[in-house]
Give the backbone structure.
Amino acid sequence: VHKFAAVAESNTTGTGEALDADAVNALGTKLDGAEFTLWKIKTKTDTYPTGIDFEKDFEDGKAVGSAAYIEALITDGSHIVDKGTFKTGDIDEGFAQGEAQWTGLEVGYYILKETKMPDGKAPGATGSKYKAAVPTIVTLPMGYSSGGATTSWNYDIHVYPKNVRDIDGIYKELTNAQAKQEYKVGDTATWAIESLIDTVLYK
């Protein structure tokens, strides 16, 4: 996982391949402290006939792969296996800035969800300057393609979820965060006020 802050939604479909340095630099600012959880989806097989059947769900009119579909799988919980939660940039795990990773995963389908944003708030929480990345289903492996045909398989998957900045909000916080609990009635507190200017409107 490579985590970035962005000022606009992206409709680019990920390929699972690592981006080159120029493409990475164009994505925005790398973000540490975003918490991601990975679950393996237990799909239907001969030995597990009650597993998730994407094809049948699609035929039944379900929006397979949508945020609502994924959240329903997480809420139900009976067809997913927790594969761990990590924070981007966690130096104790040896992660690089804005990055987190899972190793030793089996072939299959996985749910990747941002369960806490870099400011520690849950997705959808009020008072956050960011909007959480949309949960997604990741396939392991993904195919390298050429001319519309799969030519080989990629087992080293890279995803680039983004926290979109809320351009409508105005946010304030104490400039000395550690002093929050030390202020008393009558003390003077210094606040930093932050907002964004829409670059589409004002460039």
Observations:
- The first strand starts at residue 4 and ends at 6.
